[in-house]
Amino acid sequence: xxxxxxxxxxxxxxxxxxxxxxxxxxxxxxxxxxxxxxxxxxxxxxxxxxxxxxxxxxxxxxxxxxxxxxxxxxxxxxxxxxxxxxxxxxxxxxxxxxxxxxxxxxxxxxxxxxxxxxxxxxxxxxxxxxxxxxxxxxxxxxxxxxxxxxxxxxxxxxxxxxxxxxxxxxxxxxxxxxxxxxxxxxxxxxxxxxxxxxxxxxxxxxxxxxxxxxxxxxxxxxxxxxxxxxxxxxxxxxxxxxxxxxxxxxxxxxxxxxxxxxxxxxxxxxxxxxxxxxxxxxxxxxxxxxxxxxxxxxxxxxxxxxxxxxxxxxxxxxxxxxxxxxxxxxxxxxxxxxxxxxxxxxxxxxxxxxxxxxxxxxxxxxxxxxxxxxxxxxxxxxxxxxxxxxxxxxxxxxxxxxxxxxxxxxxxxxxxxxxxxxxxxxxxxxxxxxxxxxxxxxxxxxxxxxxxxxxxxxxxxxxxxxxxxxxxxxxxxxxxxxxxxxxxxxxxxxxxxxxxxxxxxxxxxxxxxxxxxxxxxxxxxxxxxxxxxxxxxxxxxxxxxxxxxxxxxxxxxxxxxxxxxxxxxxxxxxxxxxxxxxx
Length: 583
Prior knowledge:
CATH topology of one domain: Rossmann fold
Distance between the termini: 33 Å
Oligomer: single chain
Radius of gyration: 28 Å
């Protein structure tokens, strides 16, 4: 469908060509919603240097040349050079009617689809997923869904910690305990890991055995690899159970652990050395990307081979980015990794550029995020002071949400059937997951946020459950309309009341909100849009009777209700959140 923004952009193109010549046609009109008008453009300010005009004078010229009689009731210049556009009701109604007929709800496909690789979640083998993995997993999955929705090919990469020195002690401890331990589950393997570490730290004999086992593992010894694979498979099984319960699209085939790059480490070092980028420094092989200084102004090294000949995270990350660019064909590589890793990742990107791997249009981006805090303002921990296991967190969410859903079910509207026990449980799980994900995604991701069940499960305010209930209320209205024999077929939409107009314009902004996330990799932009849409709808519903309106207005308003429900459901879906029909 043709969006309002597209139509206005075409008209601005013509106006710019008239005023300044064809060389400025195609400039972004920088349209935004405004409290002063339906849309506002600050193109005159953005083109100040290129036109030489005072922005207010330039805005006046563009406004006068703008062919908008069929689109706008009036066009005004305000402030230092803004152009305010007040759209005709008939134009808004026509475009929102097109939106209702569009299965994509105005979300345009990318003009140039790309292969996008997203590195997210990244737990360690033989350790259970915990609250510290929540943000990477939830943010990465929302971005993967959104990028796919606009037509990009998305390759998920779960960079598992499945290789290296710790596996020597884990395998030796597994042998000490005998057969069957691998079937006890990762919850037991957490204890198993701690016991192996204690033996490694306290027994020189065990530590020596563990070191020899690492050599066998890295050398491809078949019996050792078989034991290693048992640990990997059991861990993946438990990861998958958490991902399924959390509604994450990551699958076993998306695993790209450190072991995948083991055979690529030495060739990576050799290539960087041959290109003169890696040099020996204090017995280690290092890359010194320009622009990184440490204490006393000394260059910061990226160590790619240690003094003992071993490899570290930097080598694996370089091998991984090379693989993603060359083997997977990525033109956009996204790392959903905590903010403290910013310098390390930037050094990896810079090295990849110097090596000729990361060449435009390909680019690498760090999706940094803050920490999950408890209500005491400290890192979220269990009562025993340990990291909170994700599975336990999800179970607590289900239990708390069930009480909420039971309460809401008792307050259901007239004509709505009560939910069965199975439906209550399903709705409670959907609400719990919405509460957890939305609390994470609705915040500016670079900031820490406080994990508070009371706030997250609230059905008023900017929360996931609030949006779910907004959707469910819409669906309830449509069920009542159907029960009364009213047609739910697409109707001609009118936008006579101010609240109808506001809702129509909010609905028409959905596609722009989705593409904002694609460009910025900031899911909170979509959350903000959905909350604003739900709030605008609430005002519309309070001011504009739907089922009791006159037939023509009723049909139009039912169409707006149905369209709002569709946009809420699709928007929540991009965040990985269900939109139940009934709650």
